[in-house]
From TrEMBL:
This is Cytochrome P450 2U1. One of its GO terms (molecular function) is heme binding. Its EC number is 1.14.14.80. It catalyses: (5Z,8Z,11Z,14Z)-eicosatetraenoate + reduced [NADPH--hemoprotein reductase] + O2 = 19-hydroxy-(5Z,8Z,11Z,14Z)-eicosatetraenoate + oxidized [NADPH--hemoprotein reductase] + H2O + H(+); N-[(5Z,8Z,11Z,14Z)-eicosatetraenoyl]-serotonin + reduced [NADPH--hemoprotein reductase] + O2 = 2-oxo-N-[(5Z,8Z,11Z,14Z)-eicosatetraenoyl]-serotonin + oxidized [NADPH--hemoprotein reductase] + H2O + H(+); (5Z,8Z,11Z,14Z)-eicosatetraenoate + reduced [NADPH--hemoprotein reductase] + O2 = 20-hydroxy-(5Z,8Z,11Z,14Z)-eicosatetraenoate + oxidized [NADPH--hemoprotein reductase] + H2O + H(+); an omega-methyl-long-chain fatty acid + reduced [NADPH--hemoprotein reductase] + O2 = an omega-hydroxy-long-chain fatty acid + oxidized [NADPH--hemoprotein reductase] + H2O + H(+). PANTHER family: CYTOCHROME P450 2U1, CYTOCHROME P450 508A4-RELATED. It comes from Branchiostoma lanceolatum. It is found in: Endoplasmic reticulum membrane; Microsome membrane; Mitochondrion inner membrane. It is a multi-pass membrane protein. The keyword Iron applies. SUPFAM superfamilies: Cytochrome P450. The gene is CYP2U1. Heme binds at residue 449.
Length: 504
């Protein structure tokens, strides 16, 4: 909008110099924003001209300041990130009312989300607006994931295979301190690779390590880079352009790898031997090849695999890192988890999902990790399908809706002492696990995370397998790691080293 405004003013006032034109731009953009602003929006913090509330969000931690603003403006309020209007939902009641009770309105995606896609058009599953195409592709993806073991014993075997590889890699360090982050990322990535690509990678595979670095970068754009993704003119500002291009280059590394795997699959494709998700998509595409309106295209496949790969890697590996950090910081809880594992599995039997119901304390501990860590503090931005009135406010069609999951997981009305790590929140007086709907780590409603079932399998099997074999400690004399973490895309624990002491 800014670039087009500059061009328009230059044509309208040819005698104006560049500086004069640039001085007019903010006034024109501000006028456009004010003219477009609906009358009965939810209230919100006053922002600056042009940039809105963007500077406040950049200078602070977004989920924390949005939670703080909700105390003043209510659970539904409006912010501006540049000229982009965003309605923020805070608290379980407002989020549940919007995403579940009013799902027809709040289950779409805002048009600006297309800016984050590979070509600005092909939206995959994660960014596709709510409608027939999204329903068709989500149904196909869920059926395919089930076919390749999600929720079944066959996938348990692959997860446990990766757990054994992780154990071996950790044992190479002996009693020396090491950082587990890359090992964990490699382990979790291999699970989604086995489903999508039909293969796994060794820990010392240089090409795969480069791929994991690219995933890290794609998942951690700065607040300014996020604005540049949504607001095109910012991409040409020198101080922002370099970071934005670096982000896009990391995307390209992943895309090129996926395209290479798809090419290999096409060359070896056998419709009587469907090996993985890519093969399943190619088969579906072949069935529809006479349909000129088919959406089962190669670019769609690339986009969907990219989204599955991204979603299936960092959030789960970061959650497991948080789990180990909490075990180190709370050795009494680690001991209780190990006692329960020993009582159910003993020293040699590998865990299975059938054991989960027999391990209420372990399940409560993992649930508390998901609550307190809140690795994904925001859901993928939602959008309104049409003009609506919500809690007395008028919200236009295609409005971006930001779901602040952090505000739910750290609500003192729901969780007394919300910053305290306490698995007993999820146990009744008999010690049985109590599921609480207010834990929405995978979001809620129709756009709930596609990989929720896979992630829950991985978290339980990896966590129990690790604590069955090792006791985790800080190196002697090492300072206590922070529990606050860092917010760069995801909520990640600060880097820390640990010692994995083998258990007898």
């Amino acid at each position: 909008m800014v670039a087009s405004t500059i061009y328009f003013l230059g044509q309208l006032f040819p005698t104006f110099g560049t500086i004069q034109v640039l001085l007019l731009v903010p006034l024109c953009v501000l006028a456009i924003v004010l003219l477009r602003r609906p009358k009965n929006l939810p209230p919100g913090p006053r922002g600056l001209p042009i940039v809105g509330n963007a500077l406040s969000l950049i200078k602070t931690t977004p989920p924390l300041i949005l939670t703080e603003w909700s105390k003043k403006y209510g659970d539904v309020f409006t912010i501006y990130r540049g000229p982009m209007m965003t309605v923020v939902l805070n608290g379980y009641a407002a989020i549940h009312e919007a995403l579940v009770k009013n799902a027809d309105v709040f289950s779409s995606r805002p048009p600006s989300n297309a800016n984050a896609t590979l070509d600005g058009k092909t939206l995959g599953i994660a960014q596709e607006p709510y409608g027939p195409k999204w329903k068709e592709h989500r149904k196909f993806a869920m059926m395919s994931l089930r076919d390749f073991g999600v929720g079944k014993r066959s996938l348990e075997g692959k997860i446990l295979e990766e757990a054994r590889a992780l154990h071996e890699e950790m044992c190479k360090n002996g009693r020396n301190a090491f950082c587990i982050s890359h090992m964990m990322q490699n382990t979790v990535s291999n699970v989604i690779c086995s489903i999508v690509f039909g293969r796994r990678y060794e820990y010392d595979d240089k090409k795969f390590q480069d791929l994991l670095m690219a995933i890290d970068r794609v998942f951690s754009p700065t607040s300014v880079e996020r604005l540049a993704i949504q607001f095109r003119p910012l991409r040409y500002i020198p101080g922002i352009r370099k970071g934005y291009l670096d982000f896009r280059n990391s995307q390209a590394v992943l895309i090129n790898h996926i395209k290479e795997r798809i090419r290999e699959h096409r060359e070896t494709f056998d419709e009587n031997d469907i090996r993985d998700f890519i093969d399943a998509f190619l088969l579906e595409s072949k069935k529809r090849q006479t349909d000129e309106n088919t959406t089962f295209t190669e670019l769609e496949l690339t986009t969907v695999v990219f989204q599955l790969f991204i979603a299936g890697t960092d959030t789960t590996s970061q959650t497991l890192r948080w789990a180990l950090l909490y075990m180190i910081l709370h050795p009494d809880i680690q001991e209780k988890v190990q006692q329960e594992i020993d009582s159910v599995l003993g020293p040699n039997q590998e865990p299975s999902m059938v054991h989960r119901s027999q391990m209420p304390y372990t399940e409560a501990t993992l649930t508390e990790v998901s609550r307190l860590a809140s690795v994904a503090p925001f859901a993928v931005p939602h959008g309104t399908s049409y003009d609506t009135t919500f809690r007395g406010y008028d919200i236009p069609k295609d409005t971006m809706v930001l779901v602040n999951i952090w505000s739910v997981h750290h609500d003192p009305q729901l969780w007394p002492e919300p910053s305290k790590f306490d698995p007993t929140r999820f146990l009744d007086h008999n010690g049985k696990f109590v599921k609480r709907s207010e834990v929405i780590a995978f979001s809620t409603g129709r756009r709930i995370c596609l990989g929720e079932q896979l992630a829950r399998m991985e978290l339980f099997l990896f966590f129990t397998s690790l604590l069955q074999r090792f006791t985790f400690k800080l190196p002697e004399g090492a300072p206590k790691p922070s529990e606050e973490g860092s917010f760069v895309g995801l909520h990640s624990p600060v880097p820390f080293k640990l010692i994995a002491e083998p258990r007898n």
